[in-house]
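Weekly structure sync, notes
Attendees: PL (lead), two postdocs, one rotation student
Agenda item 3: pending single-chain targets
PL asked that the sequence for the first pending target be pasted directly into the notes so everyone works from the same version. It is reproduced below exactly as submitted, 172 residues in total.
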Amino acid sequence: MRRTIALLALCAVALFPAATRADDASDRAVTLAKVGATLASYGQSDAGITFVQSEKNKWNYAGLLTTGLKNAQALEVVVGVTDQNTLNIMVYPHYKGGYIDIVKAKKAATLARTLLKMNYETFFFWGADDENDVYASYKFTLESGYPEASFRTVLQSIPLLDKYIGEFTPYA
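Predicted structure, written out during the meeting:
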């Protein structure tokens, strides 16, 4: 009898993580569908960005804002649903034909300090990715459900980032 109970407990422990992973992937797919619907209905008309699902990462949508900008040539926007149950919006400014590389900047330390200062002044987080490219990011946790209204507000705010890009491009 003890062996049977131990065997059943072992099977439950072994099967539970697989079931949880399947549920997580299913939840992630549902969220991705909601993101796609929001971007299709709101992205082009209100944010001025046409989004397409990324070929590199099926959990991401990408779009490019090129109109109404004074400091950046374009703002590349990547919206992703992470496996940690978050929705991440990343905005990469394009300047002088490409990304802004924090390491290759003519005044890298001043650029880095300016980005840190902007973390205090703006509601977007500023940083550099693994390839040293500067970006602005906003992250939602999905524990309370899909934040459609807030998501739309952040999308609408993306063009406002152009002002801040003007503050650090002299150092790029």
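Discussion points:
- The first strand starts at residue 51 and ends at 53.
- The radius of gyration is 20 Å.
Action: rotation student to compare against the earlier draft before next sync.
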